[in-house]
Design brief:
NXF_fam; Nuclear Transport Factor 2, Chain: A; alpha/beta; 15 helices; globular; 3 domains; RNA binding; NTF2_MEX67; LRR_dom_sf; MEX67-like NTF2-like domain-containing protein
Length: about 525
């Protein structure tokens, strides 16, 4: 089990992250120009074997080594085009891919009639080539003037290839998009900050702006116009600083709850929960992906088609059997709460795979826990705490009595968890008992950042992606380090906006230009 807590409070690795580069080229956008712990992580293993293997051909990359993929000619031509023109259509600094007027490419003359962004097969071939050449570097995509009627086809292909996570800007101007069906897949683009659909019939609909803004909540700009969303007034989270007594409670839970669940020591776990304990596991979005990611990051890229099908079926079983409280539709429901010591431990067992022995679990705990001791007017010493982290389901089927994969090499699926627990101390003052355990799970969409660092389950305002969002929304003229200085000096988003409107807006133009380019000058303004 990992030991994420340090005496200094919080994780003992720096919280800095190297993030995405630069702004997007607006001229192009508008067509005008083991993972056990974050603190002792093991390096990823190299890819095992080949993608081939015996068994019937599947939808993905399985099938026999001689399997001929569909649309081989188109895929080959697209691949050759990307090899030849990669430096022209893709900007590595900004991550911008420009596919505007794509059918007019001289290299696609022989198949020009087949270049159809409304065709599922073409979009899948195109996206497979994009993934092969750009992969996680992709940040912005322009598909202007491509006779697109149904943008959802191309967007769905990006989602299927898991390329949608990193995309922050999308332009599809000058097409013939005439309905809002693209909103469905676009909601999956959780980091999309800018969308440009000008010169499309759909923009003339009365409900166009309101529907897009309401349903694609990450957007900051629509058709080159800033979306005015009320800034948050809640204080920004700050890293935890815990006392030795608080750490002792966390160490107890780490050993007797998290490690016991991971190792299947159910008797130990039962002893920690009180006789009248309550346990619930809640979600809003589905935390276990319906489409299992078969890639190197999840150690599942080398599975053959048969293994992939079995793994998928096992996770379908898991999703159906976990006693979720779905907060989208059952916010007031009490039917999925496990009442009593035995039922609480059984529910935790089911969450870890239950009767499916192919599963084992592990936890990656974040050091920013919150621990509060309640003593005033309390007959029994009580502690309420919240722990954040990542839950891993490792998949390793058994063959001949032996697991096919060792734990560190087993394919896995993960999600983030936030767990709030209420504990009481026994009369001797020696042992804590869990009385209420509420667990909330949400998807882990980005296992690792560009730098190789693991994505954190916690939100901090000075996260590089967040800094860039704030800069683009409120102060696009400022340098990134200047915006970081502002965000770290105030306590909320609303304070950022207040400082810009009440202080920076009153500066003479020459002084403002200097302040927006020098973080030390901005720091002096904030301190003054």
């Amino acid at each position: 089990m990992s030991r994420p807590y340090t005496k200094g409070g919080g994780p003992n690795r720096a919280d800095s992250r190297r993030r995405r580069k630069g702004d997007y080229d607006r001229d192009v956008l508008t067509d005008r120009g083991g993972h056990n712990s974050s603190w002792n992580a093991k390096p990823d293993r190299s890819r095992r074997g080949s993608r081939g293997g015996s068994g019937p051909p599947g939808k993905g990359t399985g099938g026999s080594d001689n399997q001929v993929p569909q649309s081989t000619m188109m895929t080959t031509l697209l691949d050759l085009l990307f090899q030849k023109s990669s430096s022209v259509i893709f900007n590595r600094e900004s991550g911008m891919l420009n596919l505007s007027n794509f059918s007019q490419s001289q290299d696609l003359t022989d198949v020009r009639k087949s270049v159809d962004f409304n065709n599922v097969t073409f979009c899948r071939s195109l996206v497979s080539v994009i993934k092969s050449h750009m992969g996680s570097m992709l940040r912005a995509v322009a598909v202007n003037h491509n006779k697109i009627t149904k943008l959802s086809v191309f967007l769905s292909a990006l989602v299927e290839a898991d390329l949608h996570i990193g995309i922050t800007a999308l332009s599809a101007t000058g097409n013939t998009i005439d309905d809002l069906s693209f909103i469905g897949p676009l909601k999956r683009f959780v980091n999309l900050g800018e969308l440009v659909l000008k010169e499309n019939p759909v923009t003339r609909r009365e409900d166009y702006n309101s529907s897009v803004i309401q349903k694609v909540k990450s957007l900051m700009m629509l058709d080159d116009k800033v979306i005015n969303r009320a800034p948050l007034r809640l204080p920004n989270p700050i890293p935890s600083s815990l006392s030795q007594l608080q750490f002792q409670v966390l160490y107890f839970l780490e050993a007797d709850v998290f490690s016991a669940a991971a190792e299947g020591k159910w008797d130990t776990l039962t002893g920690v929960y009180a006789k009248n304990a309550l346990f619930s596991v809640s979600r809003s979005e589905e935390p276990i992906a319906c489409r299992i990611p078969f890639d190197a990051k999840h150690k599942s890229d080398a599975l053959n088609p048969t293994q992939r099908k079995v793994m998928t079926d096992d996770f379908v079983f898991l999703r159906k059997n976990v006693p979720w409280r779905n907060l989208h539709v059952e916010i007031h429901s009490l039917r999925s709460i496990a009442c009593g010591q035995t039922k609480a431990v059984k529910a935790i067992n089911i969450l870890g795979g239950g009767e499916r022995k192919f599963f084992s679990v592990s936890h990656e705990l974040n050091g920013n826990a919150n621990v509060v001791f309640l003593s005033d007017n309390m007959a029994v010493p009580t502690c309420v705490l919240t722990i954040h982290g990542r839950l891993f389901w490792h998949w390793s089927p058994i063959d001949g009595g032996e697991k096919i994969f060792a734990r560190d090499d087993a394919p896995f699926v993960s999600c983030f968890f936030h767990r709030t627990m209420s504990l009481t101390l026994d009369p001797n003052g020696t042992t804590w008992s869990v009385h209420n355990d509420m667990m909330f799970l949400r998807p882990d969409r980005l296992l690792r950042q560009e730098s190789g660092e693991k994505a954190l389950p916690m939100f901090f305002a000075n996260d590089p992606m967040r800094i860039e969002e704030m800069r683009r929304r409120y102060l696009p003229q400022a340098k990134t380090d200047v915006m970081k200085t502002i965000v770290e000096a105030v306590s909320s988003d609303a304070d950022v906006v207040g400082f810009i409107q009440n202080c920076l807006a009153k500066l003479p133009p020459d002084q403002l230009e200097i302040a927006l380019s020098a973080s030390d000058v901005m720091a002096n303004l904030l301190g003054g």
